[in-house]
Design a protein that fits this description.
By secondary structure, the chain is mainly alpha-helical. The chain is built from 14 helices and 5 strands. Helix 1 packs across helix 5 and helix 6 crosses helix 7. Its main location: membrane. Belongs to the UlaA family.
Length: about 425
Amino acid sequence: MLSFITGVLSTPAFILGIIAAIGLIALKKSGSDIIKGTLKTIFGFIMLQQGANIIVSSLVPFSQMFESAFKLTGVIAEDNAIAAAVQNVLGTETSLILVFGFIVNVILARITKWKYIFLTGHMMFSFAATMAIVFDQMGIHGWKAILLGSLIQGISSVLFPALAQPFVRKVTNNDSVGFGFWGSSLVWISGWIGGKLGNKEHSAENMNVPKQLDFLKEMSILMGIVMSIIYLVTSFFVDTKLMNELSGGQNIALFAIMQAFTFVVGILVLLQGVRMFLGELVPAFKGISEKLVPGAKPALDIPIFYSFAPTATTIGFLFALVGGLGATLISTMLPVVVLPSVIGLFFMGGAAGVFGNAMGGRRGAIIAGVVLGFSFQMIVALAYPIIDLSDYGISGLWFASTDAIIVALLIRLIGSLFGITI
């Protein structure tokens, strides 16, 4: 039974479908409308996930190409692989923190002014695993770890979206959704810095280009060209043997271009999914707001923001990559080298571009991307000593979610005040 519950809570499409159904029932919609709204919400979110999977499938070989081209070794920021790797030893703690943390979240949304319900399932899972690891390394096990982890996860699930909401409103021009992502603080801080140094009158979405280059105003075309150049240039420096393995015998230039175009197709599928499930979920969530948790807002995953400024998404990612490369070079002088996490830099850098554009135009998007890329990896480099993952047989990976890292640092700091250290 526990595995079923955690399975549902770890599957965002089911969570959102259930939420949509509850909301539509609360609004006393017809059976036909409930079925339609529920399934379209699930289909839209699965479309979003499949778009993300397509993106990841094209970025994984690029990461290998990049490491080979520039002869770099070190750790990559990636949460989900870490969460999966510790389940053999911390599976029970992770599952119960996930379930009770969600309950604490709903209770807090009901009784406090923080009305956010965190609905990003895979991030709830990775955060619960992070809490289990942190307390395990502090010598806190069993029900004590579950109790503390659940309380912290529930509080964090309303606190971080609440901190991000003033900036979310600047992007969406409404107050209907929250930011349910454990890197939200770094995204909005980067966007805020971009806003201070940019000019919001010159939006990236309204760039003036000569008529003969008008096709560049189409986000997918611009992204396809830029990504093709990046993949092609990188492929020139990759070891021939590795390139042949990755391409499976296909012409290397053609392989690079196809991977770049596949990345763009993933973006298009993802954006279509976002539009579809938000179009169903947000109206349905009003039912929950009005009946069950008055004023509640769904805190959703980071891709929901890309559709508000697709060009700024591209700009944010590209300049996050630049910032990430700078951080990688600096981290060579630190105890651990942090390699560019292309996947993390895309998802967070793209959002930073959107937030930077909303507050500081195209210059804000550029600055926000650089700040995010650099900070995202330097935080990992500086915080790396606080948690030793080699205890679980994990090497080459470390935590990626900035908010979770901040929480882990605070826990360790408070623990040290009581004499609890590694």
